[in-house]
Specification:
heterodimer; A: mainly beta; 6-stranded mixed β-sheet; 5-stranded antiparallel β-sheet; 11 strands; globular; B: mainly beta; 4-stranded antiparallel β-sheet; 1 helix
Chain lengths: 112, 116
């Protein structure tokens, strides 16, 4: 079973609308959680990184939340743009060995 | 700061042929990773180097895949012979060691391999 589960697998949203992506994880002990944006055919680019003590972090129109007690994170995209069309990958790092556990990604398509 | 450089960007080969990918990490990053990302999946770690030593290659199909990082800087990943199921994006990433790993972890743009 994958240690990082993301939902929904894919979604289509209208330009200008908001959306929220979910990430649940079982990685323990926990070190940090990252959200990456991956455009088609490109490498992942880091959006946010949160450690145990942080429960929200913003990067422009992207806001990530973390609940380390329930082991859940979300990525909220505000006022979506066509350029937001991409895969959003949740990555959780284990404390100690620094092993990274990857989710399969949320595929977002923004349409005009 | 220059990012992680990878080449080529794209490669199409026939099955049973050989292929090699190259990665140049961010200057000063001691740790280098190779990942395989199949379409619709998250990246899967193939091999991790620290300097020129292998830290983890437990998921590397060693019968056909090999990787080296001879001088602790750039690295080469080779597939010989390729199979259809090797079609994927091959990502290289690098990071500093210690506490900097969290904030310094950076991916390259990847090499998209198609095996026909």
């Amino acid at each position: 079973k994958n240690q990082v589960e993301q939902s929904p697998q894919s979604l289509i949203i209208l330009e200008g609308k908001n959306c929220t992506l979910q990430c649940n994880y079982t990685v323990s002990p926990f070190s940090n959680l990252r959200w990456y944006k991956q455009d088609t055919g490109r490498g992942p680019v880091s959006l946010t990184i949160m450690t145990f003590s942080e429960n929200t972090k913003s990067n422009g129109r992207y806001t990530a939340t973390l609940d380390a007690d329930t082991k859940q994170s979300s990525l909220h995209i505000t006022a979506s743009q066509l350029s937001d069309s991409a895969s959003y990958i949740c990555v959780v790092t284990a404390w100690g060995n620094n092993r990274l556990a990857f989710g399969k990604g949320n595929q977002v398509v923004v349409i005009p | 700061e220059a990012g992680v450089a990878q080449s080529p960007r794209y490669k199409i080969i026939e099955k049973r042929q050989s292929v090699a990918f190259w990665c140049n990490p961010i200057s000063g990053h001691a740790t280098l990773y190779w990942y395989q990302q199949i379409l619709g999946q998250g990246p899967k770690l193939l091999i991790q180097f620290q300097n020129n030593g292998v830290v983890d290659d437990s998921q590397l199909p060693k019968d056909r895949f090999s990787a080296e990082r001879l001088k602790g800087v750039d690295s080469t990943l080779k597939i010989q012979p390729a199979k259809l199921e090797d079609s994927a994006v091959y990502l290289c990433a690098s990071s500093p060691v210690g506490s900097g790993i969290n904030y310094g972890y950076t991916f390259g743009s990847g090499t998209r391999l198609t095996v026909v």
